[in-house]
């Protein structure tokens, strides 16, 4: 393990540096700038163009509200128990398909209520009968909210209805679109006179049972025809078109509001906007039996999809996926390089199988067999004397009298007699006088005892 410790530490440090550089280069510490040209209308967005304030207001006021994070094709069949709020625009990759538009229209026709808030509502509903355009001469998409407010918005109140109840000081933006409901190839021409409508020829009255059955089948077929945008109730509008229009769409109800500024975070609290918003919620959630409908905010087309992995959704838009890829590549590189040689070959370490005390034991045995007691004393006495002299601050060649005199001056806790006797016996033995094993052991024991007293 120690052989690869350096490689592992280097790899970890390299990975940390790469992650740090990637994070520093990709993480946005400031929120992305929002404007009416590029709004983010999601109820998750707390920015100026989001609708999180509207959602939290309903949630905290006890309204049964939730977020719809599935395709319109999965809308439940019990449409008479739900209301769907769709706020546009969507990102290009989330635009409605033809199948989703048909599913949404069928769901409303089966009894669902829907509020579509967009300056281009045909993109969120998909009906060519719906036409909308912004009438402002020079729209300033990047202007501050204060400069976007239309001071003449109250003039758009067309009639007193349940949606305009108690509505005063309305704060629409100057970017509010005007909606018209007509086939796309027909244009209004005020200079042309009205073409008289031909009177339809009445159908013959059936007289036989077969004719009666055929007439009933035709009537049922007419009733089962797909609903279309016809005869709207205009709540807000002017000569250029409607701003707030209400339809009975099959068994359901469909409301178009062409100015998202009314329910956006930067506009919902302005003057009468909150009143209009609450009127819309009350009207669209009311039922005949008194139990309010459940309210859903469409988040599927803002990119928050239920069928996606929650972890992937959470990390979407962050550099974390790239960091994981880099970490995976480094891990694969480390696994591939494991056991590979990157330098010159080195010999394997040789384990010393001998104990360090084996040499000492061998030398002691040889000296004992040879009776070389003086040789053993020569190995021990010089170190003992050097230790004594160093402690007393003398030269290792100092004589016995000098050592004793220095010991007296420093008053060390050492017996003067024992020290003198030990030095004398050792020097006599080294001079050639015979000494037996017992005397040698006794002399060495005294040396060790005195050396231990000096270290204290």
Short description:
The chain has 14 helices and 9 strands.
Description:
With 456 residues, this protein is an alpha/beta fold. It contains 14 helices and 9 strands. The strands form 2 sheets. It has a 7-stranded mixed β-sheet with strand order 1-9-2-3-8-7-6, sandwiched between helices. Strand 2, helix 3 and strand 3 form a beta-alpha-beta unit. Helix 1 packs antiparallel against helix 9 and helix 11 packs across helix 13. The two termini are 44 Å apart. The relative contact order is 0.12.
Structural topology:
Layout: H1 5-26, H2 52-60, E1 65-68, E2 82-87, H3 98-109, E3 113-117, H4 122-125, E4 130-134, H5 145-148, E5 177-181, H6 209-223, E6 233-238, E7 241-249, E8 252-257, H7 273-285, E9 294-298, H8 310-315, H9 320-337, H10 356-370, H11 373-392, H12 400-410, H13 416-430, H14 437-455
Parallel strand pairs: 1-9, 2-3, 2-9, 3-8
Antiparallel strand pairs: 4-5, 6-7, 7-8
Features:
alpha/beta; 456 residues; two-stranded antiparallel ribbon; 11% strand; 14 helices; 40% helix; 7-stranded mixed beta sheet
Major beta-sheet overview: 7 strands, mixed
The total count of helices amounts to 14
Give the integer mean of the pLDDT values. Answer: 80
Helix percent band: 40-55%
